[in-house]
Design brief:
Largest sheet: 17 strands, mixed
CATH architecture of the largest domain: Roll
Structural class: alpha+beta
CATH topology of the largest domain: Diaminopimelate Epimerase, Chain A, domain 1
Oligomer: single chain
Shape: globular
Number of helices: 5
Strand content: 35-45%
Helix content: 10-25%
Mean pLDDT: 93
Order of helices and strands: EEHHEEEHEEEEEEHEEEHEEE
Distance between the termini: 16 Å
Number of strands: 17
CATH class of the largest domain: Alpha Beta
């Protein structure tokens, strides 16, 4: 940890607003950061990774956070239609999209008066993410729905060898970030009941296999978006062949970053799952589906429209859920604290 800078004296206190969506935390940094430099949001993301990563470690890791903490920086957008831009941070680095954060940030931005509430109906809040512009709407009951960026299947029907000599199907899909989808039963797990540690272990094995066999995960518009962010386990039912009915509800277990288990159904993962189900004929356009998480929290999603995106058959997905406040924080860093830089035990 010797290479980690302490907080400079000009920013001795970092203030945050704490929220959660479906149990998944969101630590919104509201003051105390130095300027984040860059003409575009992706440039700002790179600047955070190269110059300000000590703040991420301080705020996400212990003793101020934990392995499964999640955060957001609010910065000026460069998209002309955006009210605000967001950078997302976690135990490993900086993600490109976060659906649970969209739900929390939409509520926060309206409550703080950054976007004026529409007294006549839902309030539109446009948030620029590293993956693109995400349009959200906050209802009077604080239900938030968002429309995703184009989501698509990148690679279908890959095979992961299993210790018993069998194979497990993998599908790599994009919903603002790339995920590998695994049928939980193929690896001896059940999405609704198996231990969290078992999913984390299997997700690490899946990611190692994808890296070892040289699967190319590339986004057609930017290399910054081209990486496998997580692994999603579910009891999906048939993902090939005709005649399978659309699901009314699915439980998803998402493991992202460095073994980080999503407490929510995962908004970008739900988006990618809808793209997969639509591609195999299991989820027609406008057919709603409920997605549940390890906490029992629910997102409601549907394929809102279809299109072509850089030669991929793509969908735009509407995802809905609710976020809640849990508190506010002030974080400091003493220069003689030997653990000030942050650490992770597990």
């Amino acid at each position: 940890m010797a290479d980690v800078k302490p907080l400079p004296k000009s920013a001795e206190v970092v203030r945050t607003v704490e929220m959660h969506t479906g149990g998944e935390p969101l630590r919104i940094v509201v003051s105390g950061l130095p300027p984040i430099v860059g003409a575009t949001l992706l440039e700002k993301r790179r600047y955070c990774r190269q110059q300000l990563d000590h703040y991420r470690r301080l705020l996400m890791a212990e003793p101020r956070g934990h392995r499964d903490m999640y955060g957001a920086y609010l910065v000026a957008p460069d998209h002309p239609q955006a009210h605000m831009a967001a950078l997302f941070l976690h135990n490993e680095g900086y993600s490109t999209m976060c659906g649970h954060a969209m739900m929390a940030l939409a509520r926060y931005l309206v409550d703080e008066g950054v976007v004026a509430r529409d007294p006549a109906g839902d309030t539109e809040v446009n948030i620029q993410c590293p993956c693109g512009l995400v349009r959200t709407w906050l209802g009077a009951d604080n239900m938030v729905r968002f429309l995703s960026v184009p989501a698509f299947v990148l690679q279908a029907d890959l095979r992961l060898p299993l210790p018993d000599g069998g194979t497990c199907r993998l599908d790599i899909c994009y919903g603002g970030a790339f995920y590998a989808f695994v049928r939980a039963a193929d690896v001896g797990l059940r999405a609704g009941s198996s231990a969290a540690a078992d999913f984390v272990r299997e997700a690490a094995r899946v990611r190692r296999h994808v890296a070892e066999v040289g699967v190319t995960v590339r986004h057609p518009e930017s290399d910054d978006l081209g990486f496998l962010y997580g692994v999603i386990f579910g009891d999906f039912g048939p993902l090939s062949g005709a005649g399978a009915p659309p699901p009314d509800a699915l439980t998803l277990v998402t493991v992202f970053a460095d073994g980080q288990l999503d407490r929510s159904p995962c908004g970008s993962g739900t988006t990618a799952c809808c793209a997969l189900l639509h591609a195999v004929g299991r989820l027609p356009a406008d057919r709603p589906c409920t997605f549940r998480s390890v906490t029992g929290a629910e997102f409601r999603a549907r394929v809102a429209s279809t299109s072509e995106f850089h030669q991929h058959q793509a969908v735009v997905v509407e995802v809905a859920g609710r976020a809640f406040y849990t508190g506010r924080g002030e974080f400091t860093c003493e220069s003689d604290d030997p653990l000030a830089a942050g650490f992770l035990v597990l």
